[in-house]
Amino acid sequence: MNAASIPSEIVQSSSDRLKITEIFLSLQGEANAAGWPTVFVRLTGCPLRCQYCDTAYAFHGGQWWDIDAILAEVAGHGVRHVCVTGGEPLSQKRCLGLLRRLCDAGYDVSLETSGAIDITGVDARVSRVLDLKTPGSKEMARNRLENLALLTPRDQVKFVLCGRADYEWARDMVAQHRLAERCDVLFSPSKSELPPRELADWIVADRLPVRFQMQLHKLLWDDEPGR
């Protein structure tokens, strides 16, 4: 359901609410759950402004949803995978409660976060997909590197690479922080900035302990919102 069509009766005055841009069913396009039918809960708002962002429509607007209503909408889609994303979902403090409630309900839950906000409070049952910002993103200074020591085998680190300089920076970060020993590491080419084949060749040549990935949803539906 797109946020624009949210029934008025689910918007409540309770403090137990989150501002939501959209909730929709699609295929997970990246990370370890790629290919699974997944319900996406896209929260509104983000403190970062990455130059390649493809969800700027989630920076503002949205509507308030009670957490009970969010769970009811998720349940109505009838799948077990749920991805909480944004924007930056952790910029809303009540996101932690939503993640816990989703896990309690038995869903396989992932969180897509920029890594600019402390992930300590995220429920241990959640798979955290940490998007470490490269120099080419123009938001590298926002990385909270303390998060890297908190990563576990349930988690993943993603690098979106804009060119060779980003690749070399990411390669050095993987080695310096021994990221491949902590969790899966994902390298993705920034759309229209780095040809996927070039990135694939670099990874093979350097024999990096990382996974090359392209965003499946973009190959299928381009940048269509809600897909």
TrEMBL record:
Where [4Fe-4S] cluster binds, per the record, is at: 46, 50, 53
GO biological process, any? tRNA queuosine(34) biosynthetic process
Q: The organism sits in which domain of life? A: Bacteria
Positions contributing to Mg(2+) binding: 55
Which keywords does the record carry? 4Fe-4S, Iron, Iron-sulfur, Lyase, Magnesium, Metal-binding, Queuosine biosynthesis, S-adenosyl-L-methionine
Q: Which Gene3D superfamilies has this protein been placed in?
A: Aldolase class I
UniProt cross-references to Pfam families, sorted A to Z: Radical_SAM
Q: What does this protein do?
A: Catalyzes the complex heterocyclic radical-mediated conversion of 6-carboxy-5,6,7,8-tetrahydropterin (CPH4) to 7-carboxy-7-deazaguanine (CDG), a step common to the biosynthetic pathways of all 7-deazapurine-containing compounds.
Q: This protein is called what?
A: 7-carboxy-7-deazaguanine synthase
